Amino acid sequence: MADTAAPPADAPAPQLDDVMLAMDVVDTLRHQDRLVERELGQEARDSALRTRLRQIYESQGLEVTDRILDQGIAALKESRFTYTPPRPGLNTFLARMWIRRKAVGTVLGILLVVLVAVVGWQIWQGNEAARLAEEQRIELTVTLPAEVREAGDAALAAATAADAKAAVETAMADGEAAISAQDGDAMRAAVADLEALRAAILRAYTLTIVSRQGEDTGVFRIPDVNEDARNYYLIVEALTDTGEALAVPVINEENGQIETVTMWGVRVPEATYNAVRDDKSADGIVQDNVLGEKRRGTLAVDYLMDVDDGAITSW
């Protein structure tokens, strides 16, 4: 066993190994930069350096032999007990990766998951875009054309009157033009028009003059352009065989808008207006209250009284 330092008077002496003492000496020298610069660079003054080191240790309650101090001084000069990092290189890099393999593995695992997710997303996006493009192609070339032609055939089959058939054929021609242009919006509009046309053709009702208490039977308007003239209207409703009032699209001549209503005013000549007024004046009820009939398979109303073109939806 190497020499050990004597303990101070008031504490037990620490038992230190010679090598540990030498390392401590080196460490002390490193932390005494000014002392080393002043003393260690001058070999003739090693003894003075040794004395100064001994004083340092004695101030800490330690006694260190000259041999240990000499070993420490020599070790410092030889750079012993000093860690010199390895030169950068592939081997050093791989060694460090191996030391940090757990952390590196975790990072690589996360990166791999992210990479797989990104690649998967891109593949899905590509497949989704291709799927949507194919769906759109099928819709424009197969689905919508079939719907247009099916709606046209159904509307044409429902039409019995010449005017109804002509209206359906015109709408079908618009649909075929949309098919040729592969215009999806126009084809959908054609389907909606043909379905609405079929519903109108199949609709049947009696155009009945309103004569209920509290309801107007007829009204008149004074045109803005001619205050001496009057436009006469009979208020009507479309009643089914069961007495249900249907909502019917009507063009309001006062604003040009199509409005769906259950009661509206049909423009009539003054003679027709007066005849209905006289009918109601007799007993408060319009006995001859059927203005016209709309039959199934037709579009036009067969009027039983003289009427003019035009209608209003409010009065």
Give a written overview of the molecule.
The strands form 2 sheets. Strands 1, 2, 3, 4, 7, 8, 9 and 10 form an 8-stranded antiparallel sheet that branches. A two-stranded antiparallel ribbon has the order 5-6. The chain has helices at residues 18-30, 33-40, 46-59, 66-77, 90-99, 101-158, 162-181, 184-202, 270-283, and strands spanning 205-209, 218-221, 231-239, 245-246, 248-251, 258-261, 263-268, 290-294, 302-303, 311-312. Residues 1-9 and 11-16 have low confidence and may be disordered. It is built from 9 helices and 10 strands. It folds into 3 domains: 18-77; 104-202, no CATH class; 205-312, no CATH class. Helix content is 53%, strand content 14%. It starts with 17 loop residues before the first helix and ends with a strand. By secondary structure, the chain is an alpha+beta fold.
List its salient traits:
alpha+beta; eight-stranded antiparallel beta sheet; two-stranded antiparallel sheet; 14% strand; rod-shaped; DUF6384
Distance between the termini: 125 Å
What share of residues are in beta strands? Answer: 5-15%
Q: Helical segment tally?
A: 9
Q: Radius of gyration in whole Å, from Cα?
A: 54 Å
Order of helices and strands: HHHHHHHHEEEEEEEHEEE
Taking all residues together, what is the mean pLDDT?
Answer: 84
As for the number of domains, it is 3
Percent helix range: 40-55%
- How would the global form be characterised? rod-shaped
* Estimated structural class: alpha+beta
Counted beta strands: 10
Keywords: Membrane, Transmembrane, Transmembrane helix
Pfam families: DUF6384
InterPro entries: DUF6384
Transmembrane segments: 103-124
